[in-house]
Amino acid sequence: MPPFVLVSRSAEYETRIRALLGERLAVVPGEFLTFGPEAVMSRVPEQPRIALLGPVLNFEETKGLVDALTAKHPDLGLIVVREQRSDLEDWVDELALHAVLSPEATDDTTMALLDRLADWLIMNDRAGAHDFDAPLAPEINQMPLVDLADPDESTGDVEVEVDLDVDVQPEPEPAVPGWEFPPLDSGQAAEAIAVVAPKGGQGKTTLAINVAAGLAKVAPNSVVLIDSDLQFGDITAALDLAPEGTIVEATSDAAIDELILKTTLTHHKGDFFVVASARSPELGDSVSPESLARLIEQLRGIFRFVVIDTTPGLGEHSLVALEHVTDAIFVSNLGVPALRGLRTELEMLRTLGLLPANRRIVVNQTEKNVGLTVKDAERILGTPVDIEVPRSTAVLLASNKGVPLIDDDPRDPASRALRALVAQIAPEAADARAQKRRRSA
Ligand SMILES: Nc1ncnc2c1ncn2[C@@H]1O[C@H](COP(=O)(O)OP(=O)(O)O)[C@@H](O)[C@H]1O
Ligand SMILES: [Mg+2]
Prior knowledge:
Layout: E1 4-8, H1 11-21, E2 25-29, H2 37-41, E3 50-53, H3 59-72, E4 77-81, H4 88-94, E5 99-101, H5 107-123, E6 191-196, H6 204-218, E7 223-228, H7 235-238, H8 247-250, H9 258-263, E8 266-268, E9 272-275, H10 281-284, H11 289-300, E10 305-310, H12 316-323, E11 327-332, H13 336-352, E12 358-366, H14 374-381, E13 387-390, H15 393-401, H16 405-408, H17 413-425, H18 427-440
Parallel strand pairs: 1-2, 1-3, 3-4, 4-5, 6-10, 6-11, 7-9, 7-10, 11-12, 12-13
Antiparallel strand pairs: 8-9
Helix pairs in contact: 6-17, 11-12, 17-18
Bound molecules: adenosine-5'-diphosphate and magnesium ion.
Adenosine-5'-diphosphate is lined by residues 197, 200-206, 364-365, 389, 391-392, 395-396, 399, 414.
InterPro entries: AAA_dom, P-loop_NTPase, ParA/MinD_ATPase
Organism: Agromyces neolithicus
Protein name: AAA domain-containing protein
């Protein structure tokens, strides 16, 4: 188990501390604090000995973390990494800290402090004598152990002190808490697919519409598309539909009755149904996350495929939607900020246990010669890209006409990519097209 854990929002500081501590350090990105200290706690190794909190965490965040950490690990050594500021005394007074470390401190000072605190914890029976040992790496026998109590001597000859009697076998890395959806039982075979992006304008709506239209060819009238973008929902506009009802009525208590729920749906001539977005963001506010969850489950009992367009980011509604789907399509354009946002989002969802078992990564609006390639995107995301949808003027033309692109311009390259996405979700879709081609040949 790594004895040190760092929670910080500074990638630069993280790199520095990682270079100092190597395998002995576990890192939890400070971005997880958006979901409260518990989201961080689930990423902290089993028995940390010293926690470094900061830089770039505010007082409330630090306090929440200190409380959660000390409740679970009363013997933990706590260091806040923060500039000397006038309010620092309040921090020290209010938080049970062992030390405050400047992020600008040299490597020697930083290591000296960590060693001092480690020794103190061992002397006070808060940690075992070998808890801070490095995991046994092959080169450890050649590595002089530097006596950091006296940094000036660090370049001189130093005695090699490796106690090989101790069990210093590296423990396996704590597994990332994975979480898979339970298999659907036979009575409930509906597949629900959420289209998710950390930012707006990435192509969620474009994807959701075309996935619904594509699935409707496999399962006519057994597909429903929910516009759960409560702020900027625009599916009815993009499909040129006059809504019968909206998500506000579909999530009302009256709609618990299936017959009433069905009256709130708007039919599209491409053989699928739409739950229209609220008529205004204010009305959208009245839709609670719980009622959205209920709507998804209800529709899964009626339709074979439920496709959900979501609000950008990981608000409560998106999280609830992800809890109630079997598949998720994550979409980003080829820009570094969007890709990094998506990477963080994927990490958070994995931690929260909300990453659906079937997930697809789509990079949308790709263009040749814009600097980044899909390979670069995969490196930034840390995961393979499943589908690449090229930028195409046909997308805008189709939405101006109110027709799904895959119907408006089937030969367009973006249209082909979207059909490939549908075929990944429902392999029958590819079969159906092949059959049609054979018949018409
Ligand atoms: N592959 C693409 N090529 C060209 N324009 C696209 C493409 N995908 C989306 N767009 C356009 O980008 C804008 C944002 O797409 P949209 O699907 O509405 O994103 P979101 O729902 O994530 O906000 C729209 O104007 C849409 O027509
Ligand atoms: Mg949208």
